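Fill in residues.
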């Protein structure tokens, strides 16, 4: 289980990785959907997307389930962040012009219900925009695989989503997920960007239980945890340049529009 009291470590590590997709996602919104109005940033985390959207002139409603993350976002945004999580957001039906979820849908126990929750709060003619990581290895996979192999750690089972609830983590699969929620004019794209992170906060995110590697670390005996840390320090010392790790990252983006007018299509399952 993630200990979000380590929110500061997340903000200094994984949030940097996720942050590279913020501008591409907002660009996709402004090319394909509304170009102003009210945007709900669902799962705002430390407020990166919310702050970027506000800088572009959007009126932003930031929503986040975890108290420690809300505090970070409130410090960044200078105002209150609502408590709430998908699929039951604390917003009325058709309340916003855009509902955006950056790297949220891929972590939900029921992604389809989550996207329906996003679609519910969007006005007819408005849009749902999401980003996820693609299936398969990601930018940090080689590092974590080395740490596990070098330390003799055993990865626990049951860390992946039930296949009956999962979806294909590709452009086509993400587009289909939005269409299943009743959204139309769906556009999917791939964003490529470089990310940088310092080794120490990245390791603190492991100790906070973030990601598969964090869950793995927490389920090891103390001697194996120590061996994982040793392997991590040795490998990051080899990989770091000027004390910083640099990784290429790939994210999948998609946007879909809720049908407009008096005869707007109902949200399936809502």
């Amino acid at each position: 289980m993630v200990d979000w009291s380590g929110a500061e470590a997340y903000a200094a590590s994984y949030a940097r990785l996720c942050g590279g997709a913020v501008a591409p996602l907002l660009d996709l919104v402004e090319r394909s959907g509304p170009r102003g109005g009210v945007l709900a940033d669902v799962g705002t985390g430390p407020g990166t997307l919310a702050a970027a959207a506000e800088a572009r002139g959007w009126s932003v409603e930031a929503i986040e389930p975890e108290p420690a993350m809300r505090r970070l976002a409130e410090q960044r945004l200078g105002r209150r962040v609502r408590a709430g999580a998908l699929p039951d957001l604390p917003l009325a039906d058709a309340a916003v012009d855009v509902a955006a979820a950056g790297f949220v849908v891929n972590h939900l126990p029921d992604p389809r219900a989550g996207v329906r929750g996003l679609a519910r709060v969007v006005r007819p003619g408005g849009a749902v925009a999401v980003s996820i990581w693609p299936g398969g290895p990601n930018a940090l996979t080689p590092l974590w695989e080395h740490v596990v192999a070098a330390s003799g750690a055993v990865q626990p089972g049951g860390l992946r989503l039930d296949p009956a609830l999962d979806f294909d983590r590709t452009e086509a699969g993400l587009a289909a997920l939005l269409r299943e929620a009743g959204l139309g004019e769906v556009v999917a794209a791939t964003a490529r960007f470089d990310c940088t992170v310092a080794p120490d906060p990245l390791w603190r995110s492991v100790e906070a239980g973030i990601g598969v590697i964090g869950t793995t670390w927490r389920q090891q005996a103390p001697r194996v945890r120590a061996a994982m840390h040793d392997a991590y320090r040795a490998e990051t010392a080899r990989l770091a340049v000027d004390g910083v790790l640099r990784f290429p990252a790939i994210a999948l983006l998609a946007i879909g529009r809720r049908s407009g007018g008096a005869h707007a299509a109902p949200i399936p399952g809502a």
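The CA atoms of residues 40 and 61 lie 5 Å apart.
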